[in-house]
Design brief:
Helix content: 10-25%
Oligomer: single chain
Strand content: 5-15%
Radius of gyration: 12 Å
Order of helices and strands: EHEEEHEH
Structural class: alpha+beta
Shape: globular
Length: 108
């Protein structure tokens, strides 16, 4: 079972989670991070590191976030692997408490 990055990460993209991942299974897009489910070892180290609570165990993913299971798998095949912490999005504070950000996800 893998962990999944969900909606709260969009337009925030904190990378605290990346820094603690022992298998480097995070991938970076323009304004979102994803976890490759085939590489994730379900260690749970990333979940508490996320300051916007965007990371869930696959079996605890909220019902309204289920589409992110497929998005993580799909986008991790297209995006570049990220292994070091970087700065969050410049306007992340404005987006931290915004709900339903899917329409703002940049996939390319």
């Amino acid at each position: 079972m893998a962990f999944v990055v969900s909606d709260p990460c969009i337009k925030c993209k904190h990378t605290d989670c990346v820094e603690v991942c022992p298998v480097d299974c995070f991938y970076e897009g323009p304004n979102f991070l994803v976890i490759n489910p085939d590489e994730c070892i379900d260690c749970a180290l990333c979940e508490p590191e996320c300051p916007v609570d965007a990371i869930f165990s696959e079996d605890e993913l909220p019902e309204d976030q289920q589409e992110y299971l497929e998005l993580n798998a799909e986008l991790s095949q297209k995006w570049e692997n990220i292994t070091e912490k970087t700065d969050p999005m410049p306007d992340h504070e404005e987006w931290t408490n915004v709900k339903g950000k899917r329409e703002h996800l940049e996939e390319d």
